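Students often ask why we bother encoding 3D structure as a string. The short answer is that it lets us treat folding as translation between two languages. Here is a chain of 352 residues written in the first language.
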Amino acid sequence: MNNIDKTILLAESFGADTSLFTSSYVDSIVKSTAYMTLVNNVAHASKFKLIKSAALVEDFKTLDYRVDTFKQAVILSARVNYLYSVSSESYYLNPLVSYDFEIKTKSIGELRCLYDGERKTFNEVIEDKSHTLGYKSRAIAGQCEYFRRELTDKIGYNYSKTQENKGMGDVVKKKTFGQIIRLLVALLAFAPSVYTLLSRRERFVRVYTAFQPTSFWDWGLLMYLISSSLLLVFSFWEFARHNKIYAPYYYFKRFGEKKITHVGEQIASSAQKLAEYIFQACKKGEKLGDDIKRFGIGKTMDSELKAYGGMYQAKDDKVMKATEDCYRIFLILTVIWALWCLVDYLVVRFIL
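And here it is in the second language, the structure alphabet:
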């Protein structure tokens, strides 16, 4: 806050009308480079779903632009400037996480830790000559432990969310059983078509080698072949779509049964290696370079958890609905053409 701002605040405290100053001050805040950069940084931070990135996003959402006094405008400016100062990736990025999107930070040395009462980058820690290696090692170890705990807790929390939805297992089992039945029906309906294609009986061979446009039997058999084939195609498509929608259930089921303990051990090991890596750089006095992905060991499973939640809206899946409708249509047509062929066969054999 400069001297002009202090003067306006003082005048406001004595009852002067500062509304014009207030409105122009707020306007200058939202048009400032710091605010524009903060907006972009917050949008980027929302992808990470980490503790500090989530806190940044929430703090930004609580900014109150309904300013009535110059004092409130100054407070708004101070909050914007503070959030801007801590909005870069270096304040919240966890190098143990394997990100499935592009990140801006290239070096572990750009990340920050609590050092001498401030949030300093690891490269600044490495270059510092005023503290012992023991002091540096404690700061490094503390930050690496934070990285380990954050990722472990995040994975454990996301996994626990799937355990709270115990009814999903029954839903998946029933849906899978229904899909298997539908697939078996399609296979059984298609089996006679295979027989007619492979059979050497004259009445089948003639249809496929010398089709008669005036023959009810020929048309019935041909249409049965087409409809049963399409029924099988849509049955497989429906089954594949079912597996895609409910894949997150099996992912978390396998993860819980086999991986969660092992993943925790991997994260701890990677965090230890990270701490040793930074400490060795301190001993050598060498700044860290392009190494941000070197210790990425695990995903936070946020996207997987989102997909898991999407299973509850499976009934609204448009592709699945369209596939189910096509299955029903071709099942009905297959039955109709099967009856057509049966009636034609009975008429020829017993009446004509």
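Translate back mentally: The longest strand covers residues 112-115. Keep this in mind for the problem set.
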